[in-house]
Amino acid sequence: MTPLAEHLARLMAIEGPLTIARYMTEALTHPRLGYYARAQPIGAGGDFVTSPEISQMFGELIGLWCADRWQAMGQPSPFALVELGPGRGTLLADALRAGRLVPGFVEAARLHLVEVNPALRALQREKLPAAEWHAHVSELPDAATILLANEYFDALPIRQFQKTDSGWHERLVDHEPETDRLRLVLAPTPASRLVPEVLAQAPLHSVHEIAAPAIAQLRLIAERLAAFGGAALVVDYGYVGPATGETLQAVRRHAFADVLDRPGESDLSAHVDFDALRRAADEAGAEVHGPVGQGEFLRRLGIDARADGLARNAAPDGAAAIRSQHRRLTAESAMGSLFKAMAIQRKGLSMPAGFSA
Ligand SMILES: C[S@@+](CC[C@H](N)C(=O)[O-])C[C@H]1O[C@@H](n2cnc3c(N)ncnc32)[C@H](O)[C@@H]1O
Predict the structure, then answer these.
(1) What does the pLDDT read at residue 39?
(2) 49, 120, 254, 321: which one has the fewest Cβ atoms less than 10 Å from its Cβ?
């Protein structure tokens, strides 16, 4: 048992089994023992690699996307340029470098970062010294906003429900004293009634996931965009629900691991239900575009020409690396279609780049 698993076992001895959302929250964000409290998770030496860490092209194209939205908004100055879960700060650093091509954009931007991991905050401070940090989206300023979230929503806690002979039950995490191990149990919690009616005929043992914090945060963001003006770009791995399927996963040192094994030492995440996010934004009075596959999105933003340009100016092995990075970001078999992009913006802004042919 990891120290965090021992902490959870003590908690369960008092409170009984915990929801998967509570388990994820403790495992990821416990202030001393949680995964995000201590790890340097991203990069070859960490547990996983993200798009901005694969290639500068990703952040650069998204920087130009932001500058275009800023122009569409009437070039507000100042405006809040927000990133949720900025990791090593690479995406925003690359975006700002490219954004310099549009006069006035970088000068007008006030950087606001939402981050819980102190180790990552320190890395972000090196690359983005002028930023202001926040622990939650509710702390963001009342201002015209352009917001980015790459692989952020997948890190927020989900609950899982399973179809049984007697209807939907919730999956909970329990500690079994005899074996001293964590295990999943089922209980007909009140939240089990939240499974959408359209899934009533799902086969026995089907699993449905609900990401309440992701929905609540997106709703808050969409309300702010509707009220103060602006646009958001969400990129993540996910699907268009409502759907059944189990997507909660643990990753340690670039390999999948057991979700209940070694909590606090593995990254936990779940695929994002883009339809649930779309409904939250709709209800908040914002306009939604997409989702479209990441490959299609980046191609529409011009990644093919950018890769050709970088490869032409590189040494032969550098050019091969650029082509392989381009493939990784855009190929169907890599990140091109499982990863998706969705834009949320104030009603009436022009069509955002990447969402139409
Ligand atoms: C998978 S990483 C993605 C990092 C970065 N966006 C990238 O693409 O490289 C998730 C990021 O979200 C942060 N994070 C996770 N849960 C969070 C939460 N509840 N509140 C704020 N930040 C969180 C992590 O510390 C990390 O920076």
Answers:
(1) 65
(2) 254
Q: Which atom of ligand 1 is nearest to the CA of 149?
A: 6
pLDDT digits (tens, 9 = 90+) for 241-253: 999 999 999 999 8
- Angle value at C-alpha 351, between 346 and 356, nearest 5 degrees: 140
Per-domain boundaries in the chain: 35-157+210-345
Q: At 179, is the secondary structure helix, strand, or coil?
A: coil
Q: 36, 53, 217: which to mutate for ligand 1, most atoms within 8 A of CB?
A: 36
**76: preceding bond cis by omega (within 30 degrees):** no
Distance CA(140)–CA(148), nearest Å, equals 13
Which CATH number is associated with domain 35-157+210-345?
3.40.50.12710
pLDDT digits (tens, 9 = 90+) for 338-355: 999 999 999 999 999 999
Q: 350 near 72, Cβ under 8 Å?
A: yes
DSSP code at position 352: P
